[in-house]
Design goal:
Strands 1-2 form a two-stranded antiparallel ribbon. The radius of gyration is 19 Å and the shape is elongated. It is mainly alpha-helical. The protein is built from 5 helices and 2 strands, in the order ββααααα. A hairpin with a 6-residue loop joins strand 1 and strand 2.
Length: about 110
Amino acid sequence: RDITPRNIQILELGGKGGMQFGLVDFGLAVDAVRWRAEGSGDLGGDGRYWPASAWFVFGFGTQALRQHPTMSYEYRSCLDVHSLGVTALRVLVELMPLLEGTSSDIAGAEA
């Protein structure tokens, strides 16, 4: 629910040339077993990283999930996986090296 680029710590490993990554900011840490069993509607984190089921709960409450088993499963089991995937995609896109030349040069080279 709160895995975002701002919550990833990167440590450069000096002369080894590598990096070490860590997840920080556990302000939203909950007992996962109890949270899944009770279906808590306690949403937190950054809405830009929520899956559709979290927005559904935000708009209609957890009781509405009973009518939608697939969304209920996603909400109870996949919130962190979804936010990690969106975070990874965002980080990769932002770290891509800039292309040399303009888009018209690239389009001309492909023709």
